[in-house]
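Support request, priority: normal
Reporter: lab tech (M.K.)
Component: structure prediction queue

Hi team, I submitted a job for histidine kinase from Meiothermus hypogaeus NBRC 106114 yesterday, and the status page still shows it as pending. I've pasted the exact input below so you can check whether something in the sequence is tripping the parser. The sequence length should be 319 residues. Please let me know if I need to resubmit or if it's stuck on your end.
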Amino acid sequence: MDTLLKDAWEAAREGVLVFAEDRVLYLNPVAAELLGIERERVLGRPLLLALRDHKLEALCRIGGETTIETRNRTVWAKAVPGILLLWDQTEEKNRVEALEESSRMLAHEFRTPVAGMLSLLEALQGGLKGPDAKEALQMLYQETQRLRRLVEDLPLTRRPSQERTFALEDLRSRLERFLAPQLAEKSAWIQWQTPHTIRANPDAVYQALLNLLDNALKYGTGAEIVVVSGQNADGVWLEVRNQGQPLEEFEKLFQAGQRGVHAANVRGTGLGLALVRRLAAGWGGTAYGRALENGNAFGLTFPLHAGTAYNRQTTQTPV
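Reply from support: The job had stalled in the queue. We restarted it manually and it finished. Here are the results:
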């Protein structure tokens, strides 16, 4: 084998395996790693013993290209007479899957302000007058501003985090106005016990809390929803509690596309809680769920920040 050619193969980023008469003549370090074999043990041995994959062996015999899953990796393979080329596409596949998930998340995140804006516009077109019209225009302006900030937060346009210190109570009136139609439809109400101050992106917290309240309205069985905050040594926690049958498993509900056992008759995409967890991670917190005696609680955590003056009236931990 030409020395320069062999040196090039040794340094190549793709895997190279050379064979003749169904026996291995050479393979470079990348090929050995992708196939999970030791070079010294397979040189001169039959292809199947080296490849340990009938699909790859057949590819070497007939030529062509394919993609296989091996050793928790996605590998593209191409065979020409006497040579098998291997390329690790795991990172590319993961990037594509992450992009697809992000697209679904963004569609879900955009759907809420757009739906709210359409409802407000329909109300204005229906002849809303006076103070009600003024309030609807103010809400429309707020949702438009939030939509603008969502666009600015896209990966290609992302600016430094818009975090600031604010009181959780600041979100109350805005959330109640937006959820007013759902609350009226369900004859439900929200009880607020949120005296704490946090540091985060207010729009991100608003979106996360809106998703949790929306879930509580969809899946809860009681009329009262409780939003309560507390503080422990790690920071502030915030929970949305609703009545209903306690769930047995919560973690899978935070995975994209997963829905609870009681969601069969409720419209949804299964992205709401996954988005909540992603938003919480953005401010350094977490999202969780836990069963209550007669219901369920879904919560958010906010880490302590130097200089943040938390209200310490409520210091209990979730129980």
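The chain has ten helices and twelve strands. Confidence is low (pLDDT under 50) at residues 155-160, 257-270. Let us know if anything else looks off. Ticket resolved.
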